[in-house]
Design a protein that fits this description.
By secondary structure, the chain is of the alpha/beta class. It folds into 2 domains: about 130 residues, Enolase-like, domain 1; about 220 residues, Enolase-like C-terminal domain (TIM Barrel, Alpha-Beta Barrel), CATH 3.20.20. It is built from 13 helices and 16 strands. The strands form 4 sheets. The protein has a 7-stranded parallel β-sheet. Strands 1, 2, 3, 4 and 16 form a 5-stranded antiparallel β-sheet that branches.
């Protein structure tokens, strides 16, 4: 049992090692909201609001999330006693949506509780696999040659799956060249909703490349058209943006809108909701994996914990800190083994030390809600 005494919001600006481009934006720097919760006895836990700087991926973005957490969500939980971190989600149910904002608080409470119990977070949430398989997500590049260089670097590092971003100007011919260059590597294409049903013939043609999946090819809110597309192509469709809840997962599976689901911790609202999505998918025999949102080390540590849950059977987007940051905000930085895996820490909570001095240097605004 714990009672939240205060919540600190900290926005940091963290420059990327290399720009990251999707079908809707190119990002050079991340504006990240960190959430620190403190209980009545001085215990603390850390979470991260994983939304982007603008409402391109979802309808949450940095500035909207700041206000939402500070003015609406934090007052819902401060001063209340919780029997378990699994109860924190319900305390914020009155506010519709805003799942990434809620997840920032909820995941911090899980870290707090695990630290108080002296156990690793991944074990506390029910994880069973202490070694997770890692893949990488590679954004749209300025040339195919640069894409080749990126892929070779990641394969040499040991990553087990390569995801490339695709868009109408960067799809069939690019994938064809990647297949010719690298052969039968585990390869997938992520469209971030860049296509419509008018592109069915293109997707039928791309079946020849035997990709692991097409991730979210159609609208971010759609399931029906995805179902129509999935009936027409052999390559599995993986839903990302469309699945924000266990109910969404159930509906997508019943509509046969996908054969795989990407679970992003922030998108579904935190660890308790992620576990419910996992259970829906496991029951239906749908493989799942952990997606990424260019998180700092704190969000990445939470992703590692979630990825240890039974049912996460495909390599996720959880990769080493150095792929994104010259210097992360946790110690040690996240690293992968030579065989392309991450071994979950046995230290209490998220398993990493939060680098407060580093965070202070990167902080652009801060607010304490008591």
């Amino acid at each position: 049992m714990f009672q939240i005494k205060s919540i600190d919001l900290i926005e940091i600006n963290l420059p990327l090692v290399h720009f990251f481009e999707t079908s809707f934006a190119r990002t050079y720097e991340r504006r990240i909201i960190l959430v620190r919760v403190e209980d009545a006895h001085g215990g603390e836990g850390w979470g991260e609001v994983t939304c982007g700087e603008s409402p391109g991926y979802s309808d949450e973005w940095t500035d909207s999330a700041w206000v939402t957490v500070e003015k609406i969500l934090a007052p819902m939980v401060i001063g209340k006693e919780f029997a378990s971190a699994s109860d924190v989600w319900d305390a914020m149910k009155w506010a519709r949506g805003h799942r990434m904002s809620k997840a920032g608080i909820e995941t911090a409470c899980w870290d707090l509780e695990a630290r108080k119990l002296g156990v690793p977070l991944w074990r506390h949430i029910g994880g069973t696999n202490n070694e997770i398989e890692c893949g990488v997500s590679i954004g749209i590049q300025d040339s195919v040659e640069k894409l080749f260089q990126k892929i070779q670097t990641e394969l040499d590092a040991g990553y087990r799956r390569i995801k490339i971003k695709i868009a109408p100007h960067w799809d069939y011919d690019v994938i064809k060249q990647v297949r010719a260059k690298f052969g039968n590597i585990l390869l997938m294409g992520d469209a971030n909703s860049a296509y419509t049903l008018g592109d069915i013939d293109l997707f039928k043609r791309m079946d020849e490349f035997e990709l692991m999946m097409f991730e979210q090819p159609l609208s971010h809110e759609d399931m029906l058209d995805h179902s129509k597309l999935q009936r027409e192509i052999k390559t599995p469709i993986c839903l990302d943006e469309s699945v924000k809840s266990p109910e969404d997962a159930r509906k997508a599976i019943e509509l046969k809108a996908c054969r795989i689901i990407n679970v992003k911790l922030g998108r579904v609202g935190g660890h308790a909701q992620a576990k419910l999505v996992k259970e829906v998918c496991q029951t239906a025999g749908i493989p799942i994996w952990c997606g990424g949102m260019l998180e700092s080390g704190i969000g990445r540590a939470h992703n590692i914990a979630m990825s240890t849950l039974e049912g996460f059977t495909l390599p996720g987007d959880v990769s080493a800190s150095k792929r994104y940051w010259h210097e992360d905000i946790i110690e040690p930085a996240v690293e992968i083994t030579e065989s392309g895996t991450i071994i979950a820490s046995e230290n209490p909570g998220i398993g990493f030390e939060v680098q407060r001095d580093r965070i202070r240097k990167l902080t652009v605004r801060k607010s304490e809600v008591r």
